[in-house]
Every structure is written in structure tokens, then in C-alpha cells.
Design goal:
2 copies of one chain form a homodimer.
Chain A lengths: L2 H28 L6 H20 L1 H10 L14 H18 L3 H24 L2 H22 L5 H9 L5 H24 L15 H15 L6 E5 L5 E5 L2 E6 L6 H20 L15 H15 L3 H14 L1 H4 L4 H8 L16 H17 L7 H12 L26 H20 L3 H6 L4 H10 L9 H9 L6 H14 L4
Parallel strand pairs in A: 1-3
Antiparallel strand pairs in A: 2-3
Helix pairs in contact in A: 1-2, 1-3, 2-5, 5-6, 6-7, 8-21, 9-10, 9-12, 10-11, 11-17, 12-14, 15-16, 17-21
Chain lengths: 505, 505
């Protein structure tokens, strides 16, 4: 076998393990019996360890070393075309990252992540931060240790963020967030002054769970989710996972008196799933078959959730169907009123319930706190106080308990520090991509009103999904939108949208 | 680490892989999207390959070689107690079996098994044996090859059977089957002459699926199935699998006009599951934490299905509850009539629908055919004809198509040749064990009528489940029942039972 064939074989095998790990995780959140948690932690940790050994093992290393200088990344082979070169560079990038982590550390971290996540579930249920505190303290320590191994950015936090959004820095994120805040805070203030103009009470009537489920599934299918190569289930926290592009699974969470939450989460996860289903199967196992970054991933979910699912055109198609499902509840609400209700802006305590505008303030707060934890040794014990103070400062509300405060998100429990910023980056990318798709696909938004989402999906498939990691995020946005990642299109979009919804001057 | 610690560590890791493989298999039969089959085959084959490498790898081999002569099985260490000696001998037995198989063969077989099983599903659905034929032909070839590697028994078929029922031989099975047949055929004839005495039409009224499901779950819980460490789902073919003793999963299959099938399959799988949940967690990963053999496993499932679930005492407890669920359907059927209906004997085409008596004829037929395929090169293309002829000879009915004939069982498609005999062996063991439990546990069957199954379960837990592979099957039956495996108790039980049900002279 040639060096390249060996590399691809080793990576394919690592991907089998990754697919298996995805199934273990999916099962843990959907169907696993409660008492199986300890055994599952062991299984996941073992698979993670195997995957690590595979990714830093001699077969891969030796073959890679034939083709590229492992220290400098300089190519030793001159016969590769552009895509092969990019593929090799990305493989090398992954290799370097993985090889910095000692095997024992990887195994310990995987075990602690699983245990700590289970502790978080209990702490959140019992509203008991003290129970979670030692787990989180250890996790923060391990993340600092991990940042030390990775040593990619200017600060430990930058090293962690780079795992999720390659080449992104705290400095760039701070700049973008500052730009957003400058325009977002006055926009939200303007809206607050006329908040009576939108009444969202229709969304909190009683809506039967089964009918909500059916409607959600029909919307998933409408936007192009392939049920022959995926499925939807219920879980405490909605997520998307993929064992392979032919097996992509989303979950949703339904509540009787909350029509908006399940529907938007269904479309959000559907956006992630469309990306995963659209990755090129022929490249499965290597970077050309993988998603670029979490920011780009989030651009897909936020696009289908917000730019599609909260658009007036979407509801021209969907509202009659929703009314047919819930004739009693929606009899006295016309489409414009409903659309406005779905788009209501209101400062709130919980990120996943937040509207499209205030959502980004939730992210900024987490970004600041994460940097304090990772770079500045802020004590975990004082987190609840810090959280609540920052909530008042950023969003103007104060959580009444930790379950709806510092315990609300799962991410930190399993060690995802540096992940949150990608949510807002996704918002920025999504508008930049969507604006371009609107130019490239004639009548795209009008077709939404007819229930036809194939124009947008085809554009995304061709320009983003099918390319895998053939482009870096910064190259992709430059190539597609003709400009660098920027907060301006996003803020222009928000301002224009809410000017209409709230009839602002 | 000591040699013994190394061995246990390696085996524990192999068990993690086995648990993962169990989940992959469970998912494939329950929730996996249809289009994910090809990717799943690759994942399963890869995990199987990893497991094989682990089980024949140098760390295990070298450590084992310190303690035992790999050729002769002679101990090289004298400080082990009885259980440790047994443990080591069983580990050695497994090692020898695994080490005879080349890694490429293991991987190829795993892949073909998955592909061939999917082909069988399609062939059965389409009633198209020709479609399945090449897959089965290749599988039979691979099984012959496997028998050649294993080379344990007098014939290739004996080598295959030994995988499922260690130390069992065709000769012993033939003897037992002959003994059963001698008494069973006249018994069935006697019953056929008075078959009008039992009317089973009540079982094929319309019974709502959801209510059947709820009743089945309540019966599972009544017999002691722990839902905190297990679950039940639906699948095309009922099965039980375990990712760990704390995560044991059964499935059932429900049909509106068939009350008996789902209920008995629920109890049957429940019996398997109780065994798996009762294995000692402290020994997880090594033979002392594993089930003895498929025959012993089947003794548990058949015991709960037949000796408990078809007993008059069980229905004293269960029938009022069933009547409460289905008052309209069961209004005019009293408990004795219902019990007789559940116990009706009637020659039929499909094994899994067969009654307790004729069931064993289905097994004998498969045993004969399997020997012809594996030992005598009987051509796969002529299987349908052979099957139908033997059905007429053994059971007196002739299938009208291959879906209800030679295609009815999944086993051959994934390579389980030598597996079927364990079903009848399980019947024999089950009566031998049950007779002893009845002696040891005062008032055991009376307590069934009060819904208390803890006497039997505790007896099984103490005497069978908790021992893992600490005894061989033949030792266990001798130790518990004071006699060797025998057909006589089983036939005594059947004759006595049907004398009552059919009021035979």
C-alpha cells in the first residue's frame, strides 16, 4: 500500500470508532436505561482511547512522515493536486493536535467527561450547584492541562477554541462581539420600548405533544431531511449526531405549553443534520468528508432555524398546515400575528429559549466567563454569583436559581470550553451565506412560500456540504460571500427584520 | 501487573468491545434508519476485528502462557483455588478457539454475516429464495472453513455446535432427540385425535397493540425484570442482548390478532434477560461473569415462557389482570378455557409460533438439515425442496412458500449453524432445573398464583446466574438435579401436562 492509502485506511478505521462513539452517545441520551451509566462511561472511554491510539499510532505517523514534515508541515511530495494537498495538510493538522495529548490523559478525560455530565444532570435537576462543583473544578483543571498540551493560541483559551473553530482567536471574537454589542444593545432597547406591539401568548396555549411531533417531522421532511438515512427522537436536550452520512440522527424536546421551542429546535437540528447528510460519502473518514468547523456547522442550523424558519415566507407555507393541526388554538390568530409572535424579542434567562437577538448576549457572557475560568483561574465555587451578576449586566435579568442560571447548559460538564462562541459565529456566517444564496438562486425565498426548499438546499450542498474540509472557514466565506467574516450583514439583517416586526422608526 | 491482572485487563477491554457490538446489533434491529445498513456492516466488522485482535493479541497470549501450557492446557501455577483454576481453564478454552481463526477470516465473516442477514430480510419479505441462495452458499462455505479451523469435534458440524454448547456432540444430541421422538410422536398423535377438546379461537380476536404492550411490560416486571437496568423495544424478530449486566435489552413483536405470540415471546426474552441481569458484575469481562452456554441460556427463557408462563398457577395471577385489560374480548372465556387455549398443540409451519410439544420436531428437522449442509455438502439450491419434504415427514404439514418454509429463521443468514439444537437442549435442562427448584423452594408454584416469582428467581440467581461459567453445563445439571442431561423429565412433564389439558386417558 502507498503511504497515502495507509493514511486513508487508518483514518477510515478511526472513523468507524467515531461512528460507534456517536451511537453510544446518542443511545445514552435517548434509550439507555438509567442504571447503565457507569458501564457506558467505561465503554465510551475505551472507544475514545482506541481512537486516540489509532490517530497517533505508528502506521499513520510513519506514512504521514513520508509525505509531510511532521514538525513544519512542509510537503515532501510534489505530485498532489490542490485538493489532495489540502487533504494532507488537514490530516497533518489533526495529527499534530491529537499527538500532543498523552493517551492516559485522553482516557481520563473521556471518563471524567461522562461522569461529570451525569453529575450535571443530577445537579441541574436538584438545583444543586454544590454537588456539581467538584466535577466542574476537575474538568476546568483538565481543560487547562489540555490547553497546555495543545498550545496553539496566544492564551490557553485560544488553544481550546481552536479545537472547535480552527484559526479563530479570542481577539477576533472579541472584536466581532464588540461590533455586535454596539448595535445590538440599542436595538434591543428600542424594541423594549414598544414591546407591547407583539403579543406571543398564542404560543403558550396547550398544544398536544403528538401533534407537535407530527408537525415537526413534516417540516423536517419539507426542508429535505432524508428519513431513510436519519431519524428523529426525543431527548432532554436536543442534539444532532452522525454515525455516518447515511445515518444522521436528531432529537427534539416537546412541551405542551410551548409551541415555539420544539419547532425551532427541530429546524435547528435539521440544519445540522442536512449538513451531515450532505457530506461526500466517497470521502468518508478523511477531512474532505468532514464538516469544516462548529461555526460553519452552526451557520447551517441557525440558517434553517432563523433565516428560513422565522421568515414570513416559511409561514406562508407552514401556517395553514399548523392551523389545520391546531384549529382551536389558532382560530383567532392570523399569519402576521403568528409570525410576529414567533419573532418576539424579550430578555430571558435561558439561552436555548432566547430569541434571535438577545441570544448573542448569552453567548458573550459565556465567552467572558470561560476566559476567566481558563485564563485567569477564576474559582469555580464563585461561578453562580458571577453568572448572576453578568446576567444582570448583559441581559438585565437575574436567575432565581442555578438550574436556570449557571447550570442551564451541558457544555462545560463534558469539557466543551471554547465552544459557545461558535454559536454566534454561526449566526454571522449564516447571514453572509444566505445573502449570497439569495443572489445566486433566483426566487429562492418566494419558493419557500410554496414549500420548496430545494433551491437553498442545493446551493448549500454544492457550495458547502459537498466540499467537506476542502476549504477553511475563512476561505469559504471569502469565496462564497466575497468578504471576510463580518458582523455587519448579521446586524443589518436583524435591524431590518425587527424594524418590520416591531414597526420601528 | 501480574500475568493474571494483564489477562483480566485484556478480557475486560474485549468485553467493552462486545458490549459496543451488542449495542450496534440492537440498534440495527430497532431504530437504525434503513439506508444505514452498509455503513453499519463496516462498523460491526471493524469492532469484531478489533475484538479478535485483542483476544489473540500478544499481551493476552504472553500472560496466558505464563500460567498455562497453551497446547495442552496444563497449569503452570499451583497457587490457584478451584474457581481461579476454572476461570483460567475457560479463558484458555476461549483463547484456543479464537486463535485458530485467521484475522482476515474473522473480518470477512463478520462482513458477510451482516450483508447476508440483510439479504435474508429482503428474500423473506419477497418470498425469493433464489435471491438469498448465493449469500447462503457462501455462508455455508465459510462455516465449513470455520469448522476446519476449529477442528474440535468428530465432524465439522460438531465443531460448530461446540461454539454454542461446549462439549456437546452430534451423537449425544441424536440420542436425546431419538428418545424425545419416541415418546413425542405418539403423544402428538393422541392429542390430534381429541384436538376438538381445546378451542383457541379466543386468542385470535382483536387485541389492541398498546394494551398488549402494557400487559407484557407488567408481566416482565412481575417476574423480576429490572427496568432500571434494561428495557424492552419492538423489532421484527424478538431477541435479547446485553451491553453489560446493567444494560440488558429485550424486544418483542406484537400483532393485533395474536395474543399468545407477543406475550410468550415477552416472557421468553424476559427469561434470557433475567439470566443476563443476574450475572455477577464483579466478574464482568471474564468467564465467571458469562453465561455457560446457549443451552443453559435457553433453559432460562423456556422456563419462564413455558414452565411459568403456560402454567395454571401463572394464570391464576395473570388472567384477572388480562381480563381487566380486555374485558370485551375475554368476557365469555373462563380461566381454564384460556389456559387450555394457550396450551393448544397443533402441528404448524413456523417454529417460533409452535407449541411446546411440536416445537421440538422443528428443531430436529433443522438439526438433520444442518448436518447435511455442513458434513455432507448438500447443495443449497435444493434446500427448499428438502425443507418441505422434511416438514411433511416430521410435522405433517407442507409450507406453501419459502417465507414460511426454509426462509423463516434468521440464524443461517448470519452463520449460526449448530445453534438450533440448543433450543431443545434448553427445554430438557429447564425441566430438570425446575423440578429441583420446586423441591428446594417450598410452595414455589403456589406463590406464582399470588404474583410472587421471587422464590424461583432467587433460586436461579443463586444456583445458576451468579455462577457464570464457574461450572460447565454438564456439571451444573449433575450438581443441581443430581442426574445427567436427560430427555425423560421433559417428556414426563409434557405427557403429564397434556394428559390434563386434553383429558387424555
Amino acid at each position: 500500500m502507498s503511504a497515502r492509502d495507509i493514511i486513508l485506511k487508518e483514518l477510515l478505521e478511526a472513523s468507524h470508532l467515531q461512528g460507534v462513539e456517536a451511537l453510544l452517545g446518542w443511545d445514552q441520551e435517548t434509550y439507555m436505561p438509567e442504571g447503565a451509566g457507569a458501564a457506558r462511561s467505561e465503554q465510551v472511554a475505551y472507544i475514545t482511547t482506541l481512537m486516540h491510539s489509532k490517530l497517533v499510532g505508528d502506521p499513520l505517523k510513519d506514512a504521514l512522515e513520508e509525505l509531510i514534515d511532521l514538525q513544519t508541515g512542509e510537503l515532501r511530495i510534489m505530485t498532489l493536486n490542490d485538493q489532495e494537498t489540502r487533504q494532507l495538510k488537514e490530516i497533518w493538522r489533526d495529527y499534530r493536535q491529537e499527538a500532543t495529548l498523552p493517551a492516559d490523559f485522553v482516557s481520563e478525560l473521556a471518563k471524567h467527561a461522562s461522569v461529570s455530565q451525569q453529575a450535571w444532570v443530577r445537579a441541574r435537576k436538584d438545583n444543586d450547584f454544590t454537588f456539581f462543583e467538584p466535577f466542574l473544578t476537575r474538568m476546568v483543571q483538565m481543560q487547562k492541562e489540555k490547553a497546555g498540551y495543545l498550545a496553539i493560541g496566544d492564551t490557553p483559551y485560544d488553544s481550546l477554541m481552536d479545537q472547535f473553530e480552527p484559526d479563530m482567536t479570542s481577539e477576533k471574537v472579541s472584536g466581532l462581539f464588540q461590533e455586535i454589542r454596539t448595535r445590538l444593545v440599542p436595538l434591543i432597547q428600542n424594541i423594549q420600548e414598544v414591546k407591547h406591539r407583539v403579543n406571543a401568548s398564542v404560543l403558550t396555549k396547550e398544544y398536544e405533544i403528538d401533534k407537535q411531533w407530527d408537525f415537526g417531522v413534516s417540516m423536517l421532511e419539507a426542508i429535505g431531511f432524508d428519513m431513510n438515512h436519519g431519524r428523529q427522537d426525543k431527548s432532554a436536550h436536543p442534539f444532532t449526531t452522525s454515525t455516518h452520512p447515511t445515518d444522521v440522527r436528531t432529537t427534539t424536546r416537546l412541551r405542551e405549553n410551548d409551541l415555539k421551542s420544539a419547532l425551532l429546535s427541530t429546524l435547528h437540528e435539521g440544519g445540522h443534520a442536512l449538513y451531515e447528510q450532505g457530506l461526500p460519502i466517497a470521502e468518508y473518514g478523511n477531512p474532505l468528508g468532514q464538516a469544516i468547523s462548529l461555526g460553519i456547522h452552526e451557520s447551517q442550523s441557525r440558517m434553517w432555524e432563523n433565516l428560513v424558519g422565522l421568515s414570513p415566507q416559511f409561514w406562508r407555507f407552514a401556517y395553514p398546515k399548523l392551523q389545520a393541526k391546531f384549529p382551536d388554538q389558532l382560530r383567532n390568530t392570523d399569519r402576521d400575528m403568528f409570525h410576529a409572535a414567533m419573532n418576539r424579542v424579550r430578555p430571558s434567562k435561558v439561552r436555548v429559549e432566547a430569541d434571535e437577538a438577545t441570544y448573542n448576549l448569552h453567548i458573550m457572557l459565556r465567552f467572558e466567563i470561560e476566559k476567566m475560568l481558563i485564563n485567569e483561574n477564576f474559582p469555580v465555587a464563585e461561578l453562580p454569583q458571577l453568572w448572576n451578576d453578568k446576567m444582570e449586566e448583559y441581559i438585565g435579568v437575574r436567575p432565581e436559581n442555578d438550574s436556570e442560571g449557571v447550570l442551564q447548559d451541558v457544555h462545560w460538564s463534558f469539557g466543551a470550553f471554547g465552544y459557545f462562541p461558535t454559536y454566534t459565529l454561526g449566526n454571522l456566517y449564516s447571514v453572509q451565506f444566505f445573502n449570497q444564496a439569495r443572489i445566486d438562486v433566483a426566487g429562492m425565498e418566494e419558493s419557500f412560500a410554496r414549500g420548496d426548499y430545494s433551491g437553498l438546499l442545493t446551493w448549500l450542498r454544492e457550495n458547502i456540504h459537498s466540499k467537506g474540509r476542502g476549504r477553511k472557514a475563512e476561505e469559504l466565506v471569502l469565496e462564497l460571500a466575497g468578504q471576510e467574516l463580518s458582523a455587519q450583514p448579521f446586524m443589518d439583517y436583524l435591524e431590518a427584520k425587527y424594524r418590520k416586526v416591531y414597526n420601528l422608526s
